[in-house]
Write a structure and sequence with these properties.
The structure is a homodimer of 119-residue chains. With 119 residues, the first copy, chain A, is mostly beta strands. The first copy, chain A, contains 1 helix and 8 strands; from the N terminus they run βαβββββββ. In chain A, strands 2, 3, 4, 5, 6, 7 and 8 form a 7-stranded antiparallel β-sheet that branches. The radius of gyration of chain A is 13 Å and the shape is globular. The first copy, chain A, starts with a strand and ends in a 21-residue tail after the last strand.
Chain lengths: 119, 119
């Protein structure tokens, strides 16, 4: 059984907005992702999603609220809630979400990552 | 919608081996717990369990392996695998596990926490 060192895993990739699988438990994946810039408004119809900031700062815009996350902070976006992640500078994020979750949620577009890499 | 600052949440309690709920998503709880000393050998029949070390060091003994976790490292203990958490010094841990999970797994004893506090 192997442990996962988050910093080491983050050092192995440089692309943005492309979550990598680093663990699975029960019906969920643990993913690591780097964000920089602005994503797209989307929601997940049936899945709650956890964002934990490991390094940097992340703004998650909701339609009625801005959530500013710093290192060591997380938020859970409930299913159905539209959200827009924005990273002014590079941010490293741990995601926890059901295995069925697509990064772009209800949208299928050029930013949708269908075949997630395991690192 | 409220974010959770891990350090702030850890500052609100001092008891050991008593996980507190700080979030829920899908069928799981996010819990924070402080360990010091040695727990008991146990397993979870149907639940995988994630241990992420936020502060300090944690040894998780398996029957055939020792896993040493430092800050920023996690391990997922699959269902059915016996494990024994040992903290030489105080360690702060984030747990992720199904809502059905008991801290002592297959054991029901004086260390079982049935009514988890939400913080």
């Amino acid at each position: 059984m192997d442990k996962v060192n988050l910093a080491q895993k983050f050092s192995t990739f440089n692309d943005f907005w492309s979550p990598k699988i680093v663990g699975e438990l029960n019906d969920s994946y643990v993913k690591l992702v780097k964000f920089q810039g602005e994503f797209v408004w989307h929601h997940h119809e049936t899945e709650d999603e956890l964002f934990l900031v490991i390094k940097g700062n992340l703004l998650i815009k909701l339609r009625d609220q801005d959530i500013f996350l710093e290192e060591g902070e997380f938020v859970i976006i409930p299913r159905g809630v539209e959200h827009l992640p924005i990273a002014k500078d590079e941010v490293h994020v741990l995601l926890l979400e059901p295995k069925t979750t697509l990064n772009t949620g209800n949208l299928g577009n050029e930013r949708t990552v269908l075949d997630l890499e395991r690192i």
